[in-house]
Design brief:
The complex is a heterotrimer. Chain A is 36% helix and 15% strand. By secondary structure, chain A is α/β, with parallel strands linked by helices. In chain A, helix 2 (62-74) packs parallel to helix 11 and helix 13 packs parallel to helix 15. Chain A is globular. By secondary structure, chain B is α+β, with helices and mostly antiparallel strands. In chain B, 32% of the residues lie in helices and 12% in strands. Chain B contains nine helices and seven strands; from the N terminus they run ββαβββββαααααααα. In chain B, the strands form two sheets. A five-stranded mixed sheet of chain B has the order 2-1-5-3-4. Chain B has a two-stranded antiparallel sheet with strand order 6-7. In chain B, helix 3 packs antiparallel against helix 5, helix 5 crosses helix 9 (247-262) and helix 7 crosses helix 9. The longest helix of chain B is centred in the last third of the chain and has 16 residues, at 247-262. In chain C, strand 1 (137-140) and strand 2 (143-146) form a beta hairpin. By secondary structure, chain C is mainly alpha-helical. Chain C has a two-stranded antiparallel sheet with strand order 1-2. Chain C is globular. Chain C contains nine helices and two strands. The chains are: A alpha/beta, B alpha+beta, C mainly alpha. Chains A and B meet through helix 2, helix 4, helix 5, helix 10 and helix 11 of A and helix 1, helix 2 and helix 3 of B.
Chain lengths: 662, 274, 226
């Protein structure tokens, strides 16, 4: 369909410019006051007028559901869309570990400032200070809100909230509900959303997938969705559109994301003018259950709290295929403890992941595929007893055993890194508005708060912060400034923009179905092949060579896709293969942008590791002089080179330093 | 169960299995469905049940047929999207396990596996094995929440919760809303689902305030939607992938009786809840 | 489901109907226990047995008591029919293959409507034979009264009746085996600390009731042989 590579992959020309198109709208003043003053300066919508405004929200994860509930409570008319059968299925539900907040209940030195500092540092100085500070500020309100909604957080015997330390943080600031924190927070937000539905403030549209944003007079004014049951395209109009559609980790085929998670909504918005920021920033989680074979459909993550007690090792000799219990201590290499004596097994996710890959690349990987390392609890069991370990990790051990049929109390677990989270996403300003006026982006779908690497237990925090405590203020400002003569009462779905977009979309579906009737390769085969290209070239470590090779392979695969994809069934009917094909169509374009972004960012930072940019100890080496900025990509049209805009990052409160976990 | 139809076994030595599937195919709610037979070969015992169906679907697509449609999403046992009645049991033979976490090592080479959708009046079939479980959302909409507006919440630690109650509440809150309880119930009753929500919220001081109305409204909605009546058989508890206990139904029963007579605005007794 | 198009309230709700049914069951079981204890008098001798029956029937409140008791039966049976029909309608398309897990439903629970129906038939015959059956008279201390003892001995002298009674008592055992436990669950008594014990006591009670009620016909039969 498209052919961008011919004019682009040969030269890695830095056609980026510090753009005047990017106004981050970060308020002036000291960082502690920015959000308060900004809120005061935002315009308000008169309570009686709120019912006149329609807001569309796409996605019902933590960010989408919390935004829908909060906006409904304020009095806006909200239309919510999700592609599953119920809003409660959104993939936020799978988060296990917890949610951070700067409550400092443990009296251990935590503060808003420390959470802010840790998040900026953890993100390897590629996030906006002001956004992160706001995130830390509202983190406490989130806990209050969720507790009031009935989220059954873990409690001490006193009845007060319990905390644990998580992801190597030096303070105990993580709130949790067993190993199901994401589920409980999402159910809290879902219930709040359903309450608004009961009050008729929220209309819920399930089993619908957004396939286009409608822009009228330069503003986002609606969406096109495909009704997944009838296969019909439906039009919805509004005064503002909020995307909370999550990340694009499934661009790697195998990831810990849910099967239906996809990047289509944000990619379609990108093609309509929303800039895509830092697409190459992906997080690879070190403690996943390794794949068992070619038919693997997805990967399962285990909480990284396992690394608190488990020791990571591989056989010291490459190609040693003996079972774990026959390898004596002296022939084991506890490589994380060896290389990082002070942090040991608790090094950050990206470091742990990359080292596992290096060991496997060196032929020391274990298991039948050779793509795994051991995570051994033998020492912990010896030290604390099996009962204590069972109390801490029982449910994770059960999950592991259910999937692998191996008993982790007797044999070490096998783990391998897997794609888990995408820090990149649509570029948004301080108000969470993209470069398309009226198009707001929340949660994992935006790029804003995690920089180049996300800390554990921060994803839930960001999703809820955006939905509960940021968007209700900032969307009001946008709506209050809207020219009232152009509110949705005047624009309806008969507008030509809807008709044109629908025509384009139907044309594309028609084309897919006509290729599909003759094609030979299934969508799954294409997706798996795309994933392999991404994982080996744009995965845990990237180099100019691998990236350039991906930049030739992806367009080749895309071309093949549009000639040879096999799709059965009809276009205007329930058709899961067509759904997959439409998502894949977007991944085939999005992945190229990810690769291009990775190629342009010649430094290593956080989850983005360029082989060319490392210290002599093989650590990520940032290049603050040239890359202390957000790369925001502008779509310029079919087959044209996208434009890389720069938003310079200024660090006024946190001193940039090189991470070291030695 | 094994080799029911007298097919020949031809699994190879690597533990790969040949399986005979009987799958419910139905175009849509208004058309009649039927059981169709398929054979899948070379199934590794290490793959999941849904991955086995993926393999079948890949075969079907390559043959130009439409794949078997089923709901699924997270494939790690938490989203509650997957369903299926496998050999007569919702989510299959393994306890405390959703279909997506069921692995093929539970089956033997040559087995015949019967796969059907969840069946209930309240869960109409959309296609094949995919059913519409919107009824469960309707029940939550009718009252399965605590009415705490964003921003109105007090400091979290100002409402202490007995640790024991928080744990019991969490036990019930673990419900994934898959509807297996309804599918397993010989009467297609949703009492375990409603009971779990009533317990989750009602055991917390935050949720006690609206307790009476919540219980009453949720049961009212449940009855309207055409679910059956509970006959205390506990099949729901036996198949629940999250181990939600029957005691939650008991709590629902007693709270409903109280709420019927004590809820607000019915001109009846207005006493303290406890 | 909305019961017969009536407005939703406690009495038309699924749980309300179950609880009313449960209360009627509780009262019926209480009656059975009293009945069972009263019948022990047959072992003591015909006089005490007949006197006991006479004392009960001579009470001017008897018709009222019978009416109340009959209403418990009617409520229990009518609600049972409504619930069974509703439950049937709640799954219009039946499973091609459905098995119980073995951890939930039991033979007793699955056959409640059937054992209930057997009990209903039994009840009708029982009333026809004894309440409205042949009237023999006898007199003790100058008082004339009905000789139920004779009726009983004669009745159970016929092996077919004996077999039918013992068989229905087996059905009765199954009905109560699930039913008595169910009373506690339906009114909301289910606590991990007490419920295992309660369930055992319930099983014991249903066994005692059915064994005792089976023992009477057997005893009568043996007596009749002598």
């Amino acid at each position: 369909m498209t052919d961008i590579n011919s004019n682009s992959n040969s030269n890695s020309n830095s056609n980026s410019n510090s753009s005047s198109k990017l106004d981050s709208k970060i308020p002036s003043g000291p960082i502690e006051k920015k959000w308060d003053e900004h809120r005061f300066n935002l315009k308000l919508v008169n309570p009686a007028n709120k019912r006149k405004y329609n807001v569309i929200i796409v996605g019902t994860g933590l960010a989408g559901a919390s935004a829908a509930a909060s906006l409904g409570e304020l009095g806006y008319n909200v239309q919510v869309f999700c592609l599953q059968d119920s809003p409660r299925r959104a993939h936020s539900i799978a988060a296990q570990g917890g949610i951070n907040a700067a409550k400092s209940y443990q009296n251990d030195g935590d503060s808003i400032w420390r959470l802010f500092y840790d998040t900026v540092k953890g993100g390897d100085y590629r996030a906006r200070e002001a956004n992160v500070y706001r995130l830390a500020q509202v983190s406490n309100n989130i806990i209050d809100q969720c507790a009031a909604q009935g989220v059954p957080f873990a409690r001490d015997y006193s009845g007060y909230l319990a905390n644990r330390s998580f992801g190597g943080a030096q303070v105990s600031r993580t709130f949790y509900a067993r190993g199901q924190t994401g589920q409980q927070l999402l159910i809290g937000a879902y219930q709040a959303l359903m309450r608004q539905r009961n009050d008729k403030k929220v209309k819920l549209y399930t089993r619908r997938e957004m396939l286009d944003v409608i822009i009228i007079d330069g503003k986002a004014r609606g969406i096109l969705v495909r009704n997944l049951i009838t296969g019909k395209i439906e039009r919805y109009v509004a005064d503002a559109v909020i995307l909370a559609t999550g990340g694009y980790g499934n661009s790697y085929f195998l990831s810990t994301n849910a099967m239906c998670s996809n990047g289509s909504a944000i990619w379609r918005a990108h093609k309509r003018g929303a800039f895509f920021a830092n697409p190459c920033f992906t997080q690879i989680h070190p403690t996943c259950i390794p794949m068992s074979g070619d038919h693997q459909s997805k990967l399962t993550l285990m909480s990284e709290s396992l690394r608190n007690d488990g020791r990571v090792w591989v056989p010291a000799r490459a190609g040693d295929k003996r079972p774990a219990n026959q390898i004596p201590e002296s022939e084991r290499d506890y490589y994380l403890e060896r290389i990082y004596p002070s942090f040991g097994n608790l090094v950050p996710r990206d470091v742990a992941s990359r080292n596992a890959k290096l060991q496997c690349d060196a032929g020391k990987g274990v298991g039948s595929t050779g793509l795994a390392v051991f995570l051994d609890f033998a020492h912990a069991i010896k030290r604390d007893g099996e009962d204590k370990i069972r109390a801490r990790y029982g449910n994770l051990f059960e999950m592991y055993e259910r999937i692998t049929a191996e008993n982790p109390y007797k044999n070490p677990m096998r783990i391998y890194p897997a794609v888990h989270y995408t820090m990149g996403g649509l570029w948004v300003d301080y108000n969470l508005m993209s470069t398309i006026p009226g198009l707001f982006v929340l949660g994992e779908a935006n790029f804003s708060d995690h920089g180049a690497n996300r800390l554990g237990a921060s994803a839930l925090m960001q999703g809820l912060a955006d939905g509960y405590f940021v968007i209700p203020y900032t969307i009001g400002d946008y709506l209050a400034r809207l020219n009232t003569s152009s509110t949705s009462e005047k624009i309806d779905t008969n507008n030509t923009s809807f008709a044109n977009s629908e025509k384009e979309l139907n044309e594309e579906i028609r084309k897919l179905m006509s290729v599909g009737s003759r094609g030979k390769k299934t969508t799954t085969e294409f997706h798996r092949e795309l994933g392999k290209i991404m994982w080996s070239n744009v995965g845990m470590s990237r180099s100019e060579g691998t990236l350039k090779s991906a930049l030739t392979e992806i367009p080749r695969l895309r071309e093949e896709f549009w000639k040879d994809v096999k799709i059965t069934g009809k276009g205007d009917d329930l058709n899961v293969e067509l759904e997959h094909a439409l998502r894949l169509r977007d991944f085939l374009e999005l992945n190229e942008l990810m690769t291009r972004d990775a190629l342009e960012r010649k430094e290593s930072c956080g989850g983005h590791f360029r082989d060319e940019s490392q210290t002599k100890d093989n650590e990520a080496l940032r290049d603050d002089e040239n890359f202390c900025h957000v790369a925001a990509w502008e779509y310029t049209g079919e087959g044209k080179m996208p434009i890389r805009h720069k938003e310079e990052l200024k660090f006024e409160n946190v001193h940039l330093s090189q991470r070291s976990y030695k | 169960m094994s080799n029911m139809n007298g097919h020949e076994h031809n699994g190879n030595g690597n533990g790969e299995m040949t399986l005979f599937l009987k799958i419910w195919r139905q175009k849509c709610c208004s058309e009649k469905g039927k059981m169709c037979e398929y054979t899948v070969k070379g199934i590794s015992p290490d793959i999941s049940f849904l991955e086995m169906l993926d393999i079948l679907n890949q075969d079907l697509i390559k043959r130009g047929e439409e794949p078997v449609v089923f709901d699924h999403d997270c494939r790690e046992g938490i989203c509650g999207a997957c369903s299926l009645v496998i050999n007569g049991i919702p989510h299959g033979p393994e306890v405390l396990t959703t279909t997506c976490q069921l692995h093929m090592r539970k089956f033997k080479d040559g087995d015949t596996i019967v796969i059907e959708p969840f069946r209930a009046k309240a869960f109409p079939v959309i296609r094949d094995l995919m059913v519409d479980r919107v009824a469960l959302d309707e029940i939550i909409t009718s009252g399965g929440y605590i009415s705490a507006n964003t921003g109105a919440a007090p400091e979290a630690n100002s409402i202490p919760v007995r640790q024991e109650n928080a744990e019991l509440s969490m036990d019930a809150a673990a419900c994934v809303g898959c509807g297996a309880c309804v599918a397993a119930c010989n009467n297609a009753s949703a009492m375990l689902f409603v009971g779990a929500k009533v317990s989750h919220l009602g055991l917390l001081p935050q949720g006690e305030i609206e307790g009476r109305e919540r219980v009453y409204n949720m049961v009212k909605k449940m009855d309207e939607l055409g679910f059956g009546n509970c006959t205390n058989e506990a099949e729901c508890e036996a198949v629940c992938p999250k181990g939600i206990k029957l005691s939650n139904i008991a709590r629902l029963n007693r709270q409903f009786a109280l709420s019927s007579f004590l809820k607000k605005d019915d001109g009846g007794l207005k006493q303290e809840w406890n | 489901m909305e019961c017969c198009g009536l407005k939703f309230n406690y009495f038309t709700s699924s749980i309300g109907k179950k609880q009313i049914m449960t209360v009627s069951a509780f009262l019926l079981i209480s009656f059975s226990i009293v009945h069972m204890i009263g019948n022990i008098l047959m072992y003591v001798g015909p006089k005490y047995f007949n006197l006991y029956a006479y004392t009960l029937t001579a009470n001017p409140l008897l018709p009222l008591a019978e009416l109340v008791l009959a209403s418990f039966f009617v409520v229990h049976i009518l609600l049972a029919i409504i619930l069974v029909v509703e439950n049937y309608l709640a799954r219009p398309q039946k499973y091609y293959m459905k098995v119980n897990t073995g951890k939930g439903a039991s033979f007793a629970s699955a056959t409640m409507p059937w054992t209930g129906a057997i009990m209903l038939v039994f009840l009708i015959f029982h009333l026809l034979h004894f309440r409205f059956g042949t009237i023999y008279t006898t007199s003790y201390d100058g008082k004339e009264m009905r000789d139920l003892y004779r009726l009983m001995i004669e009745f159970f002298a016929q092996p077919a009746y004996l077999v039918w009674y013992v068989a229905t008592m087996i059905a009765f055992a199954f009905h109560l085996g699930h039913g008595i436990q169910s009373i506690f669950q339906t009114v909301g008594i289910n606590y991990s600390k007490y419920t295992p014990c309660i369930n055992k006591l319930c099983l014991l009670l249903s066994l005692v009731l059915s064994v005792m009620f089976s023992a009477y016909p057997i005893w009568s039969y043996v007596k009749g042989l002598q």
